[in-house]
Amino acid sequence: EADIYQTPRYLVIGTGKKITLECSQTMGHDKMYWYQQDPGMELHLIHYSYGVNSTEKGDLSSESTVSRIRTEHFPLTLESARPSHTSQYLCASSEYGGPNTQYFGPGTRLTVL
Amino acid sequence: EDQVTQSPEALRLQEGESSSLNCSYTVSGLRGLFWYRQDPGKGPEFLFTLYSAGEEKEKERLKATLTKKESFLHITAPKPEDSATYLCAVQDLSGGYNKLIFGAGTRLAVHP
After folding, report:
1. B30 pLDDT exceeds 90?
2. What are the chain A neighbours of B34 within 8 Å (beta carbons)?
3. What is the DSSP string of B20-43?
4. A92 near A5, Cβ under 8 Å?
5. What is the mean pLDDT of residues B73-91?
6. Given this model, what pLDDT does residue B95 score?
7. Is the CB of A99 less than 8 angstroms away from the CB of B105?
8. Shortest Cα distance from B104 to chain A (angstroms)?
9. Chain B contacts of A51, Cβ < 8 Å?
10. Are the C-beta atoms of A15 and A83 separated by less than 8 Å?
């Protein structure tokens, strides 16, 4: 059973605001990921981390940034939100070795007006 | 280029009417194929991992199979609670960071 949490679940915010989406996991997983998903579309990887102080950009270009100061915490920040950032943001984690089964959080639905 | 294609895009079944969902993939070296279930407004829920052609895995009314070019998710005697979007993803051996490539999913609706 995966224990990965995301807050807030829903966020409606105005253009230009700075936002941070929180993601925490209690499984001690080294790897963590952020995906972006639009309705009816594929998940696209925007950021990932192999461990503390390790962050990399994924395949989909994103104006967001991430940090990994603690193993269990992987927040995503948008310095200046725009309507084009409106989407579902999903956080996931997996163990370092073995099969790369990724366990997902419930997601944050972001709407930028 | 690595690619995952799922079909059909949407499927409507009557309760008890068995069917199969398809996931076709193109990767340079398959490390694993994953099936997830996603309910509206929620994150994907892990179902199965398959590693090699010929492998099969089952969970309740679901059975996943794998060939060298595609995977099937068979649903036997589905119930309304099986309604969800089913996602397929592949992990490429050549990927530098064990990335998963997702298909767009099949939206399944099971009606009583």
Report:
1. no
2. 101-102
3. EEEEEEE-SSEEEEEEEEE-TTS-
4. no
5. 96
6. 58
7. no
8. 4
9. none
10. yes
